Amino acid sequence: MTRRAAESSELPTPLTLTLSVEGLEAIADRVCEVIETRRAEGPGRGPSARVSREGEGVGHYLTVAEAANYLRAKPQRVYDLLSARRLTRFKDGRRVLVSRAELEAYLAGTAPSAIAPALPHTPQSRMGSGPRR
Questions:
Q1: Mean pLDDT, the chain, as a whole number?
Q2: Domain containing residue 66
């Protein structure tokens, strides 16, 4: 933007583009090819490899904020899972990290739980069979 345009605060003229139907179809076909190529490459490959779900990096460990974003929850939920030992806490200096594999196992419901399962109900017997006094 030039100084003159900034001073007069004029908006730039809109761009008008005229395409033929064939040109538009060619663009749509190319977009489909690119999407199919990226799907075939799978996650972690190709030019989009640096970004995964909601923009976090594709590493083995996530920060609490990235893990919360991955779980689509608030960071406090991740801290709660760490405190309950449902997830393992890894430290890198001051940073708290969470294993991506553990998060995926947690979401799949296959993560081992540090909380003991409920004991089966067994009737309690009292000593002696007579009435209590």
A1: 76
A2: 53-108
